[in-house]
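Lab notebook, bench 4. Still working through the backlog of constructs that have no structural model yet. Next entry is a single chain of 359 residues. Request: give me the structure tokens for it.
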Amino acid sequence: MGAYILRRLLLIIPTLFGIMVINFTLTQFVPGGPIEQIIATMEGQGDVFEGISGGGSETFESQGDGGYVGARGLPKEFIEELEREFGFDKPAHERFALMMWNYIRLDFGESYFRSISVIDLVIEKMPVSITLGLWSTVIAYLISIPLGIRKAVNDGSSFDTWTSGLIIVAYAIPGFLFAIMLLVLFAGGSYFQWFPLRGLTSDNFDELSAWGKVVDYLWHITLPVLASSISGFATLTLLTKNSFLDEIKKQYVVTAKAKGLSEARVLYGHVFRNAMLIVIAGFPSLFIGIFFGSSLIIETIFSLDGLGRLGFEAAVARDYPVIFGTLFAFGLVGLLVGILSDLMYVFVDPRIDFEKREV
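Model written out:
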């Protein structure tokens, strides 16, 4: 198993490299870079995207002579100094090579528009996104697995029918709409004010006792976690039910029952191990889906300062070091979670041996 884990860890390197190559290439064709952002601000023309979208007669595309339309009121020397400062005086392939060399040395540079290094920004914002992703995934599993098992055992019953209806409704509700509903109902909207409107902690968090801090933290994350986990909860419940139904119909279950084993022993001693394999296989996609897909929307709605919101703001401002820094963090977490999924396979069923697989 150790050799397999080592191979998977080594595969992270070329995978991350490929991710960075693709995204770096795509950014070369996106209009409105950081220099254009600064020019737009200094010229008092608002956001650079107004010009790109056709809001005016001038845009901020680079011209053939190296200048920028919309920068005619700024000295050419100033524009050249900006290009040197951001590294745009070098060809794209040289900038990429330099960036990857710095990444190998764990030097992610500094934000173009903030006086802080990218790695410090990522470390500062990551706990919020991990909190949402981890708690949402744990709660989804704690609810969905028992519910899915009961639905499989009682397949076709009234319980199975009305819970399936609720699950379908839950799956159909977009996460952002459910988040807004929670705010309106329980966070000071038109009804109740049971939960805080924003943030992960209260203003007096440092003054609270240890137990008070735990309660305050749980109080703040309740609504964001519920909003993040609703879609994953629906998918995982149906996945668990279908997986158990497939196993219950197999011959070894019939044989175990014929030998006089109790239903509970058959279900949890034999069926559970085999049925849970496909559920565990869905862990990375569920976690990554919540971590990536929901983080931006949920963090924005609940005013949480996490990686999703940071990445969005960096993309709008064309803060390339922050964009690639958050991309690197997301990619690394996703790949590590994939390895964790394989380890959980072995934990649930020791018969699985990845060492014998051909790579």
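Notes after review: The radius of gyration is 26 Å. The mean pLDDT is 75. Flag for follow-up if needed.
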